[in-house]
Every structure is written in C-alpha cells, then in structure tokens.
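Provenance and format

Records in this collection were gathered into a single text stream. Each protein contributes a sequence line and a token line. The two records reproduced below are adjacent in the stream.
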Amino acid sequence: MRRSWVAAVLLLALVSPVHAQGPEAWRAAAAGENPADADAVRTAAELLREIMAIPEQSVPPALLRSAQGVAIVPGVVKVGFVLGGRHGSGIVLVRDEKGGWGDPHRITLTGGSLGWQIGVQSTDVILVFKTRKSVDGLMGGKFTLGADASVAAGPVGRHAEAATDVQLKAEVYAYSRSRGLFAGIALEGSALQVGGRLQAPSALPPLKRLLDEASKR
C-alpha cells in the first residue's frame, strides 16, 4: 500500500509541471516537442519571413536554391569598449541526401574584433552555406569562418542573382539586419558551434515551407 502511495506521489510530481501549463503543453509533450526548441524555430521563421518579404532587400532566391545549409541567428549581441565581441544563438538547417531540409540544430556564433568602439548593438544574422564541404565541416565540430571555409558579405536582392551565379566564389555568405537595414556583413574570424538536434515537430514544417518558397521567387 505504501509503495503504491509513493509511486502515485512521484507520478504526480512528474506530470504537474506539464499540467500547470495547460492542454498545449500536454500536446507538445505527447508529440515529443520541447517548448524552448519550438520557440527558437518559430523565432527563426519569423525573422526569415520579415527579411524575405521585401525582394529587393533579401537573400537572392538563386542563392537559396543552391544552398546546402542555412543558419538563422536572431539577436546577436555585439558589445564594444576598445575590444569588441559578439555572441548569439540560433538554429541551422542542412539539406539531406534527397535535397530537402533536415531537422534543425542549435548553433552559436561567437566572434571578436579590435578597435576603438563603444556600445551594445543587437543584430540578426543569416548565414548561407553554398558547398557540401562547408556544411560537413560545420556539422563536424567547431567551425571558424574564413579559416575552415571562405566567407563573404552576401549579395542582396533578386537583381543580384546573376552575380550570385557567375562571380561569387565564397563557400559561405553572411547577412545582417540591424535597425531595419538588411545587408551583407563580413564575419571572418567568427566561430560557429553546432549543438544538439532541436525537438520542434510542429514548428518545423512552416520554416521548411518558407525556405522552399523563398528559393522559388
């Protein structure tokens, strides 16, 4: 009898946090979804949606069509006082063997710079990986832009497609959005670290559709 009572108390302790969050938390738990992971994927999708809404100020569709991987890192914080540094966390998706988008993984971006600077700035960052080599290197461990793969400020707008196909030879193209301005950015020397796979089955399909639609414009 006492064993049954102890088991019931332990079970109640395990399910109470989920129950307190309501039916949505129950459904997420049943689907194997982590709420924090789902929020990260939705935030990345919203950022991509806002950027691609203005074709003249977005990632060229041709570049996305040939991309082997895309990293979306919202709110990279850049702090500077003589010695500058940046850090942010987001998600990365890599194409699978069939050419579709695989499951998202957590990714962190860290970098520094020298020079007289002061202040705090938040910037959204998007990285487009053009080659399989760059993607394999990224997923294999710690990865430094400019050392493990060539990186360049990405072209902006659908009219940049010709340059994307013919002139640009870098393996990774970097973009930033700060104070409403979207442009290519130099991130050479920044380190990328890929973490575990995110559990976000309900949030992932809209992001995948958004990437596919953006590459067809």
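Adjacent record:
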Amino acid sequence: MEARGIEPPRAVDANVLLRYVLNDVPEQASRAKRLVESTEPLGLTAVALAEVGWTLAGPYHRYSRAAVASALAELIARENIIALGFDKALASAALLTCLPAPGAANIGDALLAACAGSAGVTEIYSFDETFDRTGMGVVPP
C-alpha cells in the first residue's frame, strides 16, 4: 500500500474488539465502539479475529459457535475493517460454514481455510476428517 502513497491502516488488537462485542468494561467499551464504528480504516489480522473467537467461545463467556461466527462475520463486514493477510469475502463465507446445522465447521478451521484460500490454496493436509466442512479439500498426510 505504501508504494502507491497510501498509508497502511493501524491494526486493531483483539482486546479492543472484545470490548466492542462484549460491552463489558464501560469506559473501554465506549472508546472501542467509537473507534470500531468510526470511518477510520482498521487493520484486522486473522490472529486477532481468532483470539476474539476463542475468547467468546471459551469457559468465561461460553458463546455458542453460531454466536461467535455471527459476531466475527459482523466485524469483518464493517466497511472500515481492512483484512490484513486474508480476503474478507473468503473469511465471511468460511464463517458461514460454522452456523448451526449438522456438520458445522469449527471457527479455527474456518479461519485457517479462509487464510489459506486467500493465498490460493485449495487443499490442506489434515488428520481431521471433517475439515472439508470448511469447503477446502482435505488430503490425508
């Protein structure tokens, strides 16, 4: 981006996104909301996205897989969110594979498939026989 004279966005940390989604620490949540809902371009990495997902699904918050996938998809869909190192459309599509239905993909696999797919990868070596739920081809090692 810099080569064209456009500055890259500042990255946003998972803790800011969590305050925004959870609205659990009032002073930080209002600052996070102001930032996330602004027009400022915010760089989002797959690692930060995964961190938010794992925290929401973890033992403290216990969000369902569908609720986590929906929250992540809503973040990705924001106009000012710039995906760093992955394609937003692929990530959104991958997260849809996590919604409730028999055989839904897990969040980690969906994000892995989105990142790999963003690089043109269509197959993965995995022992996980259900990885194909993400839409990526699975090759046994």
